[in-house]
Amino acid sequence: MSDLLKELYQEIILDHGNTPRNFGKCEPFNKSADGHNPLCGDKVHLTLLVDDQNIIKDIKFTGEGCAISIASTSLMTQNLKGKSLEYANNLFQDFSNLVTGSSDELQIITEEDSLYSLKGVGAFPMRVKCATLSWHAFKSAIDEK
Amino acid sequence: MDQIELKENIQADFPALNKKILKNDLIYFDTAASAQKPSVVINELSDFYLNHYSNVSRGVHTLCVEATFKYEDARKKVQKFLNAYSENEIIFTKNATESINLIAQSYYQRYLKSGDEIILSVMEHHSNLLPWYFLRDNYGIVLKFINIDSDGNLNLDHFETLITKKTKLVAVTHLSNVFGTITDKKLIEISRANDLHILLDGCQSISHIKVDMQEIDCDFYAFSGHKIYGPSGIGVLYGKENLLDELPPFLGGGGMISEVTYDGATYAALPNKFEAGTPPLVEAHGLGVALDYVESIGMDKIEQYEKILTEYADQKMADLDFVINYSKSKNKTSIISFNLNKIHAHEVASFLDVEGIAVRAGHHCCQPLMKLLNVTATSRISFGIYNTKSEIDYFIDSLTKCKNFFGVK
What Cα–Cα distance (Å) separates residue B14 from each residue in B41, B174, B392? Predict the structure, then answer.
């Protein structure tokens, strides 16, 4: 296996891809959104419970997709649960920079963070959408009035 | 002679111009029909097929990445060239004709009902007539035509009298392919004041004058890549994003969908919604390279240079009393339609061909206009960035030879 592929499919990605965390539906939830990548057919359905202090109390997802897409979603839910929407917005931007090869501009994500494992996506431009699908769905869920 | 050049030895950039017609050097005065291609474009097409070719968008392998990036890069180049607000406003088609057909069909479905009116002009190319005739014939849309004055300018007073509460769209040429007339900005102002949507046929304006979508403020603009030194088989539809967003798709197929079931489908977002099937991806890249080439010279300089050529040809032709020049607008460029007294345009074109000069003769896809001018055909010269004043001198001499050959007084 080449280094690029090892970089792309780190153990943590395969783990989350095979056994996603926070899989299911929040009960109750007050925000939701669907993500869909028409190029490959990947789908994600997100549900969130956000309290009146703008804290994400719960976040879960269902859907189908490749290991990158599922692992990215699973890691996203782990990293957002219990956090404020403001933090989530900043993390969204950071994550976009991470997977599009602008990792020198990171503000929040460090090399020790689980999300950093998705950095390898940057070498495969056509897979960036796999990694960002659920993040865009999250963004549309919280931007929805 | 006050010879000016756009770029040093520019003709060397266009290998086709080395061709000899019999023993004569080729003088290419038919750019309005299609422009010759610079080596950079020809070489890039070949390089794409040799080194980067695959289908776009639907794969993850390296060649697919390279092809997709080149294709999308071309879209960025078109956006920048047109100064469009967003890449989503740039739809790749096979040519301007397809672009206009797309708008006609989709616009009808979204905005029109029987009895609604569309305004065209009497000097439209068939490609900006037939798509609308389909709407008239099939759906009862009423078409009206703006007259021209004796100099070949749109009569904007007449335009205003045509507008009613049922008028929804005005679709006219931005630069006449017969007269070279540039459409007055006032047409846009009048249209805006009357809440009309505006489509400009940019087939000629794209290569002869600087076009800026945000400044012109039309709703739709169509052009073909081959007229601006790019390959054939690639066209562009520009449309304001909010309008394109509202229009239903034109062609159905791969690439334009979001989700498909046996019961139906939802559509992709812009611009993919209007790009069904494998697009002319190599040609799109070629167009991007052609636009880079044109921008390396500068559209401002090109516009200025071609106006000088046009004025020069006008003056020289005015000295010949056997020449009838139909392109009389003061606001024109790059295109002159003419006839020689009592000699059919086809005779003139064949004579000039033997002299090495490529001109067009016929109705220029404007049969109704020819009827209005009361001619069966005209000859037409049109200039591109590679033409020179000395070529015009040679052409003028050839016109006199032609007249003498056919024995016309």
Answer: 10, 27, 19
Strand-pair partners of B119: B144, B170
Q: What is the pLDDT of residues B234-260, one digit of tens each?
A: 999 999 999 999 999 999 999 999 889
Q: Is the ipTM of this complex over 0.90?
A: no
Provide the pLDDT confidence category of residue B4 given band limits of 50, 70 and 90.
low
- In the chain, the amino acid numbered B399 is L
A53 CA: distance to closest CA in chain B (Å)? 34
Interchain contact, A127 vs B60, CB within 8 Å: yes
The CATH code belonging to domain B10-30+299-405 is 3.90.1150.10
pLDDT tens for residues B269-323?
Answer: 999 999 999 999 999 999 999 999 999 999 999 999 999 999 999 999 999 999 9
Q: Over pLDDT 70: what percentage of chain B? A: 99
What per-residue confidence (pLDDT) applies to B342? 84
* Chain A touched by B164 (CB under 8 Å): no
A126 vs B257: CB contact, 8 Å cut-off? no
Q: How buried is residue B54: exposed, middle or buried, by Cβ count under 10 Å (0-12/13-18/19+)? A: middle
Bin B253: left if φ > 0, else alpha if -120 < ψ < 50, else beta. Answer: left
- Domain range annotation of chain B: 10-30+299-405, 42-296
B365 tagged catalytic: yes
Question: Mind giving me the DSSP string for B72-114?
Answer: HHHHHHHHHHHT-S-GGGEEEESSHHHHHHHHHHHHHHHH--T
Quote the CA–CA distance of B142 and B116 in Å, as a whole number: 6
Distance from CA of B67 to the nearest CA of A (A): 11
pLDDT at A1: 55
Q: Work out the burial of residue A144: count CB atoms within 10 Å of its CB; fewer than 13 is exposed, 13-18 middle, 19 or more buried.
A: exposed
Torsion of CA B323, B326, B330, B335, to 10 degrees: -90
Whole-angstrom CA distances from B82 to B1, B98, B232 are: 35, 19, 19
Cα–Cα dist B6/A135, whole Å = 50
CATH of A3-143, one of 3.40.190.170, 1.20.810.10, 3.90.1010.10, 3.10.20.740: 3.90.1010.10
My answer on whether omega of the bond before A20 falls inside 30° of 0, hence cis, is no
Nearest CA to B217 out of B78, B84, B111 is that of: B84
Report residue B97 as tokens. Answer: 């004709």
How many H helices and E strands in chain B? 14, 17
Does residue A134 contact residue A76 with C-beta atoms inside 8 Å? yes
pTM comes to: 0.90
Residue B7 dihedral angles phi and psi, to the nearest 5°: -155, 140
Contact B220, B238 (CB under 8 A): yes
